[in-house]
C-alpha cells in the first residue's frame, strides 16, 4: 500500500521548505507553495542555480497567509505583513513576464544583506492566471513548471544505490525539493506511470516529468554547491532527449486536503513518457 510520508511546501521560491503533517491543496498546489519570489533589481527571479544561499532562508507563514517570517543564520529574523493589494510590478520567470506585488523595503533590505546582492520580495497577485503545460495543464504560483512535485522513496533509494557504487555519499530527499513523497511503491519511478492519483479527498493528474537542474547540486543545509551529484549519476540512467528526469509534476484536478499517512490510490496508469538514452 502506497502512502504519503512527507509533505513540504515552499512559501518563497528557492528558499527552504516547510514540512507539514497535513496541507490544503489549492488549484495551484499546496497552500502557500511558491507564493513569494525573490527578484533582482530588474525583476528577474533569483534561483539557487545562481544564488545557493537562498537555501539558508527559512520562511514561515500563518495559515491565513497574512504574516510571513524569514530567518537566516547570522541575520536573525524579519517579519512581513503580507501585501495583496499593492502596486503590481513587472517580474520575469524563465523569460515569461508576470506581475508581482512588492513586499516592501524592510524585506528587500534583509534579503539583500543575506544574499549579498540587491534583492526584493514579490508575492503572486490574487488575479495571477498562469497556466502550466503538460499532459494535464494546470496552474501554479511561482513554481518552476507545475503545481505539485511528486517523488517516491524507492526512486531516491535507487539513485543513492547508484551514487554509492561510484564512492559518493547518499543524498537527502530535500536535494530534490518535492511537495509529496510517497512510500510503498516498490518499483522505482512508479510516479512516471501514475496518471491519476486520489489522496484523501484530493485528485491529481500527471502533467510531465520533473526536469533536474543545478539546484540539485546545492547542499540545502549549507547553502552551497557540493560536488557533481546527483546530476553525474542521473545522466547515466535518467537522461532523456529533453534533459535529466527525476520525479514527476502533477496538476490539481480536485482541490482538497492531504495528510501524512494518507493512502495513495492510483486510478489510472500509463507508460513513462521519457525515452532514456543508453549510457
Summarize this structure as a short list of keywords or feature phrases.
single chain, 279 residues, mainly beta, five-stranded mixed β-sheet, 3 helices, 22 strands, 11% helix
Describe the structure.
This protein is globular. A hairpin with a 2-residue loop joins strand 4 and strand 5 (29-30). By secondary structure, the protein is mainly beta. The model has no long low-confidence stretch (mean pLDDT 96). Strands 1, 3, 13, 14, 15, 16, 19, 20 and 22 form a 9-stranded mixed β-sheet that branches. It has a 5-stranded mixed β-sheet with strand order 2-6-12-11-10. The chain has 3 helices and 22 strands. It is 11% helix and 39% strand. The longest helix is centred in the middle third of the chain and has 13 residues, at 153-165.
